[in-house]
Automatic annotation (TrEMBL):
It catalyses: L-glutamate + H(+) = 4-aminobutanoate + CO2. It holds the Pfam family Pyridoxal_deC. This is Glutamate decarboxylase. NCBIfam families: Glu-decarb-GAD.
Length: 631
């Protein structure tokens, strides 16, 4: 991240009311425990001249970092924020090892090589054993390396034919993560960004992508897990279309799969989905170990199906560290500890462990999806909680054609209809995965048309802001170009987000909605309109199990007893057990709609708001363990 030189203390000095002269140098730390440690001034923006004691340095840095958000409640990030204590121990044991020094740390290199072999098997590389790969600092570096290999192979082929090599281009969807665009800009490649469509789940439009191919196309980036909505782009479909292009024009366009997130989800949850090296046109894949690979930030991977797809001109042979070694990275020195913990995860969890953990994450993501829909305020753009083949765009189209409104909530399968749609052969963990749409455990949602119409001044940005007050970090952002008029909220459901946290999240979400919509609340006076003609005395529309609105939406606010008020008042009044029970029933109902998936984890989770809780309203003492590893 580029940072400009700053002096934020100048702003504080303006508010010191003449006391500025007490501090001759505003660019120093005002240390809380200065009198305890006899601290001298420590500059903020100029290099310190004198040393500080370790106690002082630690306390100062520790206190400054207290302004950070809580990683557990960071719903914006895909990055893992927890590992087992044994992994933490391995990090500390190996934190001083440099992975680049192969001669000095040969065991770390053995571990590195085993990880590459594991991934080659996981991503279905040809059985001839000629796949090659390397660890990187993350998927961004891995994408650079994969893109460079595409460019060099294209250039070499053009040079052999005596053709111009000055105008390379690469094709990707407008939903591409910034690292893909960075590759194009940094290495002089034209980025041909294909606009996304609602019809293509806000990912690349295959038909449009094919139209942009020419003889200067070095390859195509295809994303297995869009950071916008969590959808997988159709690798196999695009590969078949590129086969047809080659038959028709002779232009060979290879595929690099950006599997930063999906590379550690699809192999375990959707093993029959063709996206990796079993697709012949896929020549390279990158993955992020610190996302759904469940390691801490600092490790990524890139693999090529065969050494022939990695031009030798990109590989350096080094001798100055004591032995001959080959390297193809943008960074040289790098910590070995994160590769070590990635190896720990591979042998600790195996296919079974990764499958169970990600299945639970998907289950909790579906639970959150159903809960958000149950409010009647939100509609979901992500499709992981919907039946296979049932998409946001398809449901929206049906709703409009049927004259049932502008929301997918008006027509999508819910309740008994949703359960009745299951086939008799679909049961258990694998059956549930087959039944639902494939995708990442990511939940993206926005206000329904009805809610926007009723409360036009209430914004999703305000929801994001109020959730931040409660500690939740939930981004609100525009969709990619061609859909940028639509704003969505996004929650990434990682292993650390248990069903209990989903429950807490929904309580805080309802609190935020109540604050924004009540006539005389903070939301009405600050974050929403104060115009009585706009805000009115109406209460928001919430829907019950029968799909009908709860409460009279025309009843004056001061006399109403809406479902929203019932569900949120429990946050402020512990005596209202009946209201607590009503929210619990709503939560249980949402859970029933998406149905329990994994046997593991959900046996505990179901006790949190199970049938006995539904009937008695008593608080159960059992909760789903956030970090209950399966093995």
């Amino acid at each position: 991240m580029l940072i400009k030189q700053i002096d934020a203390e100048k702003i504080l000095n303006l508010a010191r009311e003449g006391k500025v002269t007490l501090r001759k140098d505003p660019g120093i730390h005002s240390f809380s425990y200065g009198s305890r440690y006899a601290v001298t001034d420590i500059p903020k923006f100029t290099f310190p001249e004198v040393s500080a004691t370790p106690e002082v340095a630690y306390q100062l840095v520790h206190d400054e970092l207290e302004f950070d958000g809580r990683p557990l409640m960071n719903c914006a990030s895909f990055v893992s924020t927890w590992m087992e204590p044994q992994a933490d121990k391995l990090i500390m044991e190996n934190i001083n090892k440099n992975l680049a020094d192969q001669d000095e740390y040969p065991a770390a290199q053995v571990v590195h090589g085993r990880c590459v072999s594991y991934l080659a098997d996981l991503w279905k590389a040809p059985k001839d054993g000629n796949a090659v790969g390397t660890a990187t600092g993350g998927s961004s570096e891995a994408i650079m390396l994969g893109g460079l290999a595409l460019k060099w192979r294209w250039r070499e082929a053009r040079q052999k034919e005596g053709k111009d090599t000055s105008k390379p281009n690469i094709i990707m969807g407008a939903n591409a993560q910034v690292a893909l665009e960075k590759f194009a800009r940094y290495f002089d490649v034209e980025a041909r960004l294909i606009p996304v469509k609602c019809e293509t789940n806000f990912t690349i439009d295959p038909e449009e992508a094919i139209k942009h191919i020419d003889e200067n196309t070095i390859g195509m980036f295809i994303i297995l897990g869009s950071t916008y909505t969590g959808h997988f782009e159709p690798v196999h479909q695009l590969s078949q279309m590129l086969d047809e292009v080659e038959r028709r024009t002779g232009i060979n366009v290879p595929i690099h799969v950006d599997a930063a997130s999906g590379g550690f989800v699809a192999p375990f949850l959707y093993p029959d989905l063709p996206w990796s090296f079993e697709v012949p046109r896929v020549v390279s894949i990158n993955g992020s170990g610190h996302k759904f690979g469940l390691s801490y930030a600092g490790v990524g991977w890139v693999l090529w199906r065969d050494a022939a797809y990695l031009p030798r001109g990109l590989v350096f042979e080094l001798h100055y560290l004591g032995g001959a070694e080959e390297t193809y990275t943008l960074n040289f020195s790098r910590p070995a500890c994160f590769v070590v913990t990635q190896y720990y995860n591979f042998i600790r969890l195996g296919r079974e462990g990764y499958k169970r953990i990600h299945t639970d994450s998907l289950s909790n993501a579906r639970l959150l999806s159903r809960s958000l829909e149950a409010t009647g305020v939100f509609e979901l753009l992500s499709d992981i909680h919907r039946r296979r083949g049932e998409t946001y765009h398809g449901l929206l189209k049906q709703a409009r054609e049927a004259g049932k409104g502008q929301s997918v909530n008006d027509i999508q399968s819910l309740g008994d209809e949703f359960q009745a749609g299951k086939q008799g052969s679909v049961d258990g963990v694998d059956g549930e995965l087959v039944f639902y749409n494939a995708g990442l455990p990511v939940v993206t949602f926005k206000f329904t048309y009805a809610f926007q119409k009723e409360y036009p001044t209430v914004t999703q940005a305000a929801i994001s802001l109020l959730l931040r007050v409660k500690g939740w970090i939930v981004p609100n952002y525009e969709l990619p170009p061609s859909c940028e008029t639509v704003e969505i909220l996004r929650v990434v459901v990682r292993e650390s987000m248990s069903a209990d946290l989903v429950d807490g999240f929904m309580h805080d979400m309802i609190w935020a909605l109540k604050l924004l919509t009540e006539q005389n609340g903070v939301g009405a006076s600050i974050l929403a309109s104060q115009d009585p003609q706009v805000q009115g005395n109406r209460t928001p529309r919430f829907y019950g199990q029968d799909g009908q609105p709860i409460g009279d939406t025309n009843e004056p606010k001061q006399q109403s007893n809406t479902a929203m008020q019932q569900m949120t008042s429990m946050l402020h009044n512990e005596k209202t057990k009946a209201l607590h029970e009503k929210w619990n029933k709503t939560f249980v109902w949402a859970r029933k709609q998406m149905s329990a998936t994994s046997e593991y984890g959900w046996k505990l989770a179901s006790q949190h708001l199970g049938k006995e809780h539904e009937s008695t309203g008593k608080q159960d003492s059992h909760h789903q363990s956030t970090y209950a590893r399966p093995c």
